[in-house]
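Practice record 12: protein with succinic acid.
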Amino acid sequence: MSPIETGRVIIVGAGLAAQYAALKLAPRPVLMISPEALGTGASSAWAQGGVAAAMDPADSADAHARDTVTAGAGTVDPGVAASVTAEARDHILDLIGLGTPFDRTANGGYVLSREAAHSFARVVRVQGDQAGAEIMRALTAQVRESDHIQVLEGVMATGLEVSGGRVTGLAVAHCDQGQSASVTLRGTAVLLAGGGSGGLYALTTNPPRIRGQVIGMAARAGAQIADAEFVQFHPTAMACGLDPAPLATEALRGEGATLVNRRGERFMLDAHPDAELAPRDIVARAVYAQTQTGLAPALDTRTALGAKILSDFPAVAAACQQAGLDPVTQVIPVAAAAHYHMGGVATDADGASTLPGLWACGEVASTGLHGANRLASNGLLEALVYGRRCALAIDAALPAPTVAAPVTLPDLPAAETPDPALVARLRQAMTDGAGVIRTADGLNRTLTEIAAIEAAQPACDALLNMTATATLLRRESRGAHFRSDFPHPDGATGIRSLMTLTDALAIRATMTRKEPA
Ligand code: SIN
């Protein structure tokens, strides 16, 4: 089928970074590719904590930048941290202008949550745990009203077209009723904002479709991928048999909720001086260790919040109800679950990837902000900062906008969909071998399993190869990446990993049997 030409900037994804970038591209014509109905299906809408920003006059962007660098365990780019945190306030004010009802105090300040590894309570929130949902509600309303934005719902991106080393188009398919064959769209630029990869793990807090497809697509097109091995595990995913596992926000621990095991012991007291508010990777490993030894870790909100959890944390309360739990009288069973991918498409300060014509923002990108361990609630902030930067950079790179007609996709024949049994095997292989605690043996088994699954269904995932390979190559422990066979960091500062898919496959070929000494 012939490619469809359009004068629109094509944005892959419909979460916070995608929608914010689309709005900031006005009046330039935009085409958004949204697999689900706009405003649903993206991780952003599930974010409970909020946006980290130094909004209290006693706080500062410098302190926020310092906390970001410290949490990142030696691999955050300090210049990126300084510039992103300096822009935070401006984006909060912008979101308010766009209709986000952040919680305010009686004297006109902001209600600020405390989350782990922040030296100050600085997470701007909405109705306790509704920040993501409310920000997305406000932006979705704006996008729907914007004439310059066309949204194709029920459509997913399946690949990038590259010509002469430049991204020239995007293959898309219908996905509302099974998956169709693809057709190529050629726009003026392509912006990837299609989320991270948590759903590649069997135990995850991410929405079902967030499985690294967009990072994998960029990798297959030849873009450099940074820090693929840095995956953050959230310590308090609710262990209630649901897939995905609902989140019990870190803000609960900020309010004084404690972690206990089935013996009633507060195990974080011995694990770190900051106990439940230790950096997220440390709490995740402690929770994981309790799970592995059968001690059934749980979050106890009863004393700290009592019945207030029902009104102040409605998303957590609803998840408890769905799981048949009463958090007012019972503890909430928890487990460490894949939550956020610090790695992704390597970008510069404007969100440009290493492939001309291709930009990336949000969780799909790796900008250097998060290092080996993202500071809580810096994810939505990064999506805002780089969403706007990408929009400005794309606009500056293109000739003056002209009017573009809406794009209509033709009916397309049905195509092969990923075999659910193979997907389940992949997810289990990632949780087993590339999860909270990693070893060379476990990673080699995961790589071998990925290769076998790939052979069974060859269109398999490029990102998995890169994640497992980069994980195997990083022979140290740093932030969220913990190898029990290399349990210490290799120096105070670390080196970011940068890899193309070709590099990863060559390394896999030599490493799946035995890791070199
Ligand atoms: C949380 O609310 O615990 C998650 C916040 C985040 O991942 O940034």
